Amino acid sequence: MMDGKPPSASHAVLSQVMLPGDANPWGNVHGGTIMKLVDSAGAIAALRHGGRRVVTLAIDSMHFLSPVHVGELVTVTARVTAVWRTSLEAAVTVEAENLMAGERRHTATAFLVYCALDEAERPTPLPPLLLETDEDRATAREAEARRRRRLESAGS
């Protein structure tokens, strides 16, 4: 039996200043650049929870709420929201900060699903998620609803 871990144990933060190579000619950062950071932060959270290699199974639809520009600091925050037998969900938020003006804004949110792998690259069990707060429990219920929708759409 594996010891469980709370969502707070998986908390991961990545920050990176966006450079001209990250953007189009108009200075807007490519969505793919942001998505790579989102997947990296989600994978770190999954690794912190499971302590084993993970692969990305799904990324729920990701909506970009506002553009990110060259020179802004992007901060991506992730944590595990639910754990099933060999897979888990991580919630990831993206903020952009204009460092000169000191203004921050939420630019995107995504939910990603990862599968834990053993040494033979087969799915392997994960430790349970210890839900300590009312917020943890509410977030886990929302994750279960998203999982049901994912499984329904995969079957159609």
Describe this structure in words.
- The chain is α+β, with helices and mostly antiparallel strands and about 160 residues long.
- It has a single domain (about 5-155), classed as Hotdog Thioesterase (Thiol Ester Dehydrase, Chain A), CATH 3.10.129.10.
- The chain has helices at about 30-50, 135-155, and strands at about 10-15, 55-60, 65, 75-85, 85-100, 105-115.
- A hairpin with a 4-residue loop joins strand 5 and strand 6.
- The longest helix is centred in the C-terminal third of the chain and has 22 residues, at about 135-155.
- It is elongated.
Structure summarized in a few sentences:
This protein has 156 residues and is an alpha+beta fold. It has helices at 31-50, 134-155; strands at residues 12-17, 54-59, 63-64, 73-83, 87-98, 103-116.
Radius of gyration: 17 Å
Class derived from helix and strand content: alpha+beta
> Low-confidence spans: pLDDT under 50, at least 5 residues?
none
Q: State the total count of DSSP E strands.
A: 6
Rounded mean pLDDT is 96
Give the distance, in angstroms, between the N- and C-terminal Cα atoms: 35 Å
Q: How does the major sheet shape up?
A: 6 strands, antiparallel
List keywords for this structure.
27% helix; single chain; alpha+beta; 2 helices
Tell me the layout of helices and strands.
Elements: E1 12-17, H1 31-50, E2 54-59, E3 63-64, E4 73-83, E5 87-98, E6 103-116, H2 134-155
Antiparallel strand pairs: 1-4, 2-6, 3-6, 4-5, 5-6
